[in-house]
């Protein structure tokens, strides 16, 4: 029972870290990265669809992204979605392909992005701590119902804390890497 609860904690905490990594990939740095736009939800025949399912996204140059839709009729909708997003990018549409020039970031914008990275990292840490709290409650319930002994509860809680610390450290490292990337000129 304890091992199953700990396995669930591990899997949910990994999910929080993975979610943070995907989230941070969409934060713009000075370099062009397909991750910047691939999750944008484009209205495709009434269904919000991730851009990566509608087009080939590539970064042929450090400050340029190209988006080549599989279906040319979606070009205008893709351009509209990019324009409406909070990325601050203006799409250039030539009828076949969309080009996105990634301008260099100002110092002020870099600091804003660092604040955003820190905020997202804190949200991920809170998510990991919430998982820890849920699993701790589950373990204590097992002990109350006499399914596990007090010793097993203590061992389980100690193991849970190690797992939590490991994932929070991973979140901190991910955040520091992204901050360094954002501040790189």
Q: What is the radius of gyration computed over CA atoms, rounded to a whole number of angstroms? A: 22 Å
Number of domains: 2
Q: What is the mean predicted local confidence, pLDDT?
A: 89
**DSSP strand (E) fraction?**
15-25%
**Largest sheet, spatial ordering of strands:** 3-4-6-5
Ends apart, CA distance between termini: 51 Å
Specify the number of helices.
4
The portion of residues assigned to helices is 55-70%
Which stretches are low in confidence, meaning pLDDT under 50 for 5 or more residues running? none
Task: Give the beta-strand count.
Answer: 6
Structural class: alpha+beta
CATH superfamily of the largest domain, by name, is Ribosome-recycling factor
Give the CATH architecture of the largest domain: Orthogonal Bundle
- In CATH's first tier, which class of the largest domain applies? Mainly Alpha
CATH topology value of the largest domain:
Topoisomerase I, Chain A, domain 4
Principal-axis shape: elongated
Largest sheet: 4 strands, antiparallel
Question: Can you describe this structure?
Answer:
- With 185 residues, the protein is of the alpha+beta class.
- The protein folds into two domains: 2-25 and 106-183, Ribosome-recycling factor (Topoisomerase I, Chain A, domain 4, Orthogonal Bundle); 34-101, Gyrase A, domain 2 (2-Layer Sandwich), CATH 3.30.1360.
- The protein is 57% helix and 15% strand.
- It has four helices and six strands.
- Strands 3-4-6-5 form a four-stranded antiparallel beta sheet, with helices on one face. A two-stranded antiparallel ribbon has the order 1-2.
- Strand 5 (91-93) and strand 6 (98-101) form a beta hairpin.
- Helix 1 runs parallel beside helix 4 (150-183).
- The longest helix has 38 residues, at 107-144.
- The protein starts with a helix and ends with a helix.
- The model has no long low-confidence stretch (mean pLDDT 89).
């Amino acid at each position: 029972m304890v091992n199953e609860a700990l396995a669930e904690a591990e899997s949910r905490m990994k999910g929080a870290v993975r979610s943070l990594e995907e989230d941070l990939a969409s934060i713009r740095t000075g370099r062009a990265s397909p991750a910047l736009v691939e999750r944008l939800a484009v209205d495709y025949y009434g269904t919000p669809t991730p851009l990566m399912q509608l087009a080939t996204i590539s970064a042929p140059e450090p400050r340029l992204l190209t988006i080549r839709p599989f279906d040319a009729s979606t070009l205008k909708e893709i351009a509209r979605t990019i324009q409406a997003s909070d990325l601050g990018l203006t799409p250039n549409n030539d009828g076949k392909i969309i080009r996105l020039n990634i301008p260099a970031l100002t110092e002020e914008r870099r600091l804003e992005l660092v604040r955003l990275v820190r905020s997202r990292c804190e949200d991920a840490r809170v998510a990991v701590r919430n998982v820890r709290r849920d699993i701790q409650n589950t373990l204590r319930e097992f002990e109350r119902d006499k399914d596990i002994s007090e010793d097993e509860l203590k061992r389980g809680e100690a193991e849970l804390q190690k797992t939590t610390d490991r994932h929070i450290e991973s979140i901190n490292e991910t955040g520091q890497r992204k901050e360094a990337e954002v501040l790189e000129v």
